[in-house]
Design goal:
The chain has about 300 residues and is of the alpha+beta class. About 60% of the residues lie in helices and about 15% in strands. It has nine helices and six strands. The strands form two sheets. Strands 1-2-4-3 form a four-stranded mixed sheet, with helices on one face. Strands 5-6 form a two-stranded antiparallel sheet. The longest helix has about 55 residues. It is rod-shaped. The relative contact order is 0.14.
């Protein structure tokens, strides 16, 4: 069974290879769709496509921000002889001393500009390829951390959502029990209204009476609304049982539950049944607030 996952999460991972160190960070918040944003060091844009694919394979929804901070190693200093300068100094010294054998090379090498301190270039193609491979491989561990956090948060939300669905189901059962008492109350009300119609100065025709009776009966019958409410609750529980990215479909069911609860309240003439209908609406809103957080 697939897990229900939250859309919120955070993960951080340190890595090191070929003399470099780096820090991956990923943050996820709610979104209607999958929105990916990347902040990568200069020269690492080419790994974005691979990283983007891996995120899309693991996350169906969420506003996800990914950042990579790369720490370049200090390049070791190296000594380099400026042979062009040394040759010129050697020639001049030989002319002054009258013989090349009389030139003190060690003394010349101590002069400024003969020996230079340079930084060794360690950036070669092979190391670049190895570094990119190591960075991308470490991202998989980072992504696992994010998915685990979203799954753990999803499990917590699942318990809350199931509680809200249970509350709604209980309210619907209460409404169903109250609705069973409606026929007797409707009958009394119909008799009163029929008496009012017949006692008027101009008694209505039988056709008019039949129309009014049909309208009153239709307005007071909430069985269809209750049946649909029970069906929506069953569908919500089925979705949660399947797991996966069910947030959008659950949000749609919340809209349908709210619509049926509105109709229930508008059609009922019983104060207690209306009160229960309002309780259903409030519970549906609490359910919807939590559903906004799941994938």
């Amino acid at each position: 069974m697939l897990k229900v996952k939250s859309m919120t999460g955070f993960a951080r991972l340190d890595g090191a290879a070929v003399g470099y160190s780096w820090v991956w960070e990923v943050k996820s918040v709610n979104s209607k769709s999958l929105d990916l944003r990347f902040r990568l060091p200069q020269g690492f844009d080419q790994i974005e496509a691979e990283v983007r694919k891996r995120v899309a394979d693991s996350c169906a929804r969420g506003n996800i921000s990914v950042s990579l901070v790369l720490q370049r190693p200090e390049k070791p200093p190296a000594l380099e002889i400026n042979r062009h300068v040394l040759d010129k100094l050697t020639t001049v010294a030989a002319e002054v001393r009258g013989s090349p054998d009389a030139v003190n090379i060690e003394a010349l090498m101590s002069l400024r500009g003969v020996i230079e301190v340079v930084e060794e270039d360690i950036d070669d193609k092979t190391k670049t390829i190895d570094l990119e491979a190591a960075v991308v491989a470490s991202f998989e561990d980072l992504l696992d951390g994010l998915v685990n956090m979203r799954s753990a948060e999803g499990a917590r939300l699942l318990r809350i959502i199931e509680g809200h669905i249970g509350d709604i189901a209980n309210f619907i059962s209460d409404a169903s029990g109250l609705a069973e008492l409606q026929p007797k109350r409707r009958k009394l009300r119909l008799m009163e209204q029929l008496g009012e119609l017949l006692d008027g100065d101009t008694p209505p025709s039988e056709e008019r009476i039949a129309q009014e009776l049909a309208l009153i009966i239709a307005r007071g019958d909430v069985r269809e609304e209750l049946d649909r409410l029970f069906a929506h609750i069953a569908a919500a529980r089925e979705l949660l049982g399947k797991g996966g990215a069910v947030g959008r479909r659950l949000d749609f069911l919340c809209q349908e539950l709210n619509r049926e609860a509105n109709t229930l309240c508008s059609k009922s003439s019983d104060i207690e049944l209306i009160r229960v209908g309002l309780e259903i609406k409030a519970a549906v809103e609490r359910l919807r607030e939590q559903i906004q957080n799941i994938e």
